[in-house]
Amino acid sequence: MSQDGEAENLKAEEQSAEDADDSIAVIGGGLIGLSIAWELARAGWRSTVYEKGRFGGEASWAAAGMLSPGGEVEGPSALASLAIESRDLYGRFVENLEQASGLGIDYQECGGLDLAYSPEELRVLEERARVQAAAGIESRPVTAAHIVAFWPRVRREGLAGGRFYPKDGVVNPQELVTALAKACRRAGIQIHENCAAARVEVFEKGATVESCRGTAWHDAVVIAAGAWSSDLEMRGAPAIPRAEPVKGHLIGYRQPEHTCATIVRHRGTYLLQRANGLLIAGASVEHVGFDRELRDEIAAGLAGEAAFVFPHLAETAPSEVWVGFRPESDGLHIGAWGSKRLLLAYGHYRNGILLAPVTAARIAAEINANLQTR
Ligand SMILES: Cc1cc2nc3c(=O)[nH]c(=O)nc-3n(C[C@H](O)[C@H](O)[C@H](O)COP(=O)(O)OP(=O)(O)OC[C@H]3O[C@@H](n4cnc5c(N)ncnc54)[C@H](O)[C@@H]3O)c2cc1C
Q1: 66-99 burial: b if 16+ Cβ within 10 Å, else e
Q2: What is Dmax (Cα atoms) for the chain?
Q3: Disulfide check for 34: which of 18, 180, 256, 339 has CB 3.0–4.6 Å away?
Q4: How far apart are CA 281 and CA 310, in angstroms?
C-alpha cells in the first residue's frame, strides 16, 4: 500500500475510534437490506442500516408480492435455481420473522394459474412448462371445465384451458418489511431512517460510510439501495454496476375474501388477493426514470386487462393505484465486489420479494466466511 493509502487508512481508523459504529453497514432499508441485516444479526453480527427515506418505503412497499418461479422463470438458469431455493426458504423465513417480531404476516402457499384463451395460447403455455420442468419448476395442465368449477369468477368465453403451478405463492410485502424492521430493532440493529448514505470508501481493513450521521467506520459495507444503488459515490473500489429504475403501476380493488384464491395470470397480466381483501392487478413496465406520476391511461389499461380475466371487475373502479421502481441492472448482483469489505445486493428487478431470503443467506454466508465476528 502507498504512503497516501497508509495515511488514509490511519485517518479512517482514528475516525473510527470517534464514530465507532457497528461492524457491518447496510445501505438501503428495503426488503433486501433489512433481510440481510436480520440474517447477519442471527449469525452474531452487529449492523447499521442507512435508509434515505422510510424503511421499506420504495419498491418493497409497492410490490405485488408474488413468490412465483412459475410466473417468472423461463428455463434453466442461475436465476431459476436461486428463485426455487428462495421459494423453498420462504415458509421458514416468514415463521422465524413472525416469532421474532410478534407480528402476523399474510403468506399464502396458494399456487398460481396461467390461463389460455386460444389453442395457440395453450400451446405456448405447454411449451413453456416443458422448458420450466427442466429447471425444476413443477406444473400441471388444467382443463377449461376444471377452471370453471374451481375459479368460478374467471371469464369462460373462449377459455381453452390452463396450467397450475402448485408451488407459487403470495406474501404481503408491506407486512414483511414492517415485521423485519421490528425484528431488526429487537435484535439491536440500528436503523437510521431519513439518513442517506452519500459516499463509501473501501480500505484494506474496513470501509467508511459518509451519511447524515457523519463518517462511520465499518468492517464491511453492503450496498442494497435498489434502483438507487449506483448513485452512491464510491472510492477505493472498482466502479460498481449501474442500477436502473423500471417503473411499474399496480391497481387494487377492495373485494370479498376468496374472490381470487390463487395467483391468476393471463399473458402479461397477473392478479392476486391479499388476506386483507385487496385484489391487485399488474403491472406496467416503463423505462421512464424516477417518474412518480400516476398515469390514468396506464391504470385504465390494467383495469381493462383485469376485467378481461374477472369480468365482474368491469362494474367497479380500482380503489387504489400506485407505482414503484424495480431495480434493474446488467444482472443480479449478490456478493463481494473487488474486496471482501464491499458487497453488492441489488439488481433483483421483478423478483426482489421472492429472492430476499436467498440473498440474505448468501450475503451472510460470504461475510461469515471472509470476515471475523467481533
Ligand atoms: C410494481 C412492482 C411490482 C412488483 N412485484 C413483485 C412481485 O410480485 N414479486 C417480487 O418478488 N418482486 C416484485 N417486485 C420487485 C421488488 O419490489 C423489488 O425487486 C424489491 O423490492 C427490491 O428490494 P430492494 O430492497 O432492493 O429495493 P427497495 O425496496 O427499493 O429498497 C431500496 C432502499 O434503499 C434506499 N436508498 C436508496 N439510496 C439510498 C442511499 N443513498 N442511502 C440510504 N438508503 C438509500 C431507498 O430509499 C429504498 O428504501 C415488484 C416491483 C414493482 C415496482
Answers
A1: bbbbbbbbeeeeebbebbbbbbebbeebbebbbe
A2: 77
A3: 180
A4: 11
Grid coordinates of 182: 421490528
Q: List the domains of the chain with CATH numbers.
A: 3-61+174-243+330-370 (3.50.50.60), 111-167+244-328 (3.30.9.10)
d(CA 6, CA 157): 73
* Residue to substitute in 73, 107, 251, 353 for testing ligand 1 pocket (most ligand atoms within 8 angstroms of CB): 353
What are the residues facing 66 on neighbouring strands? 170
pLDDT at 225: 98
Q: Consecutive sets of 10 residues in the chain, 374 residues long: mean pLDDT of each? A: 46 43 88 98 95 97 96 88 97 98 98 98 97 95 98 97 98 98 96 97 96 95 98 97 98 95 96 98 97 98 98 96 98 97 98 98 97 67
Residues whose beta carbon lies within 6 Å of some atom of ligand 1: 27-33, 50-53, 57-60, 62-66, 196-197, 224-228, 232, 248, 250, 282-283, 324-327, 346, 348-354
H-helix or E-strand containing 126? helix 119-134
Can you say whether the dihedral through the CA atoms of 146, 149, 150, 153 is positive or negative? positive
Closest by alpha carbon to 374, among 223, 222, 219, 221?
Answer: 219
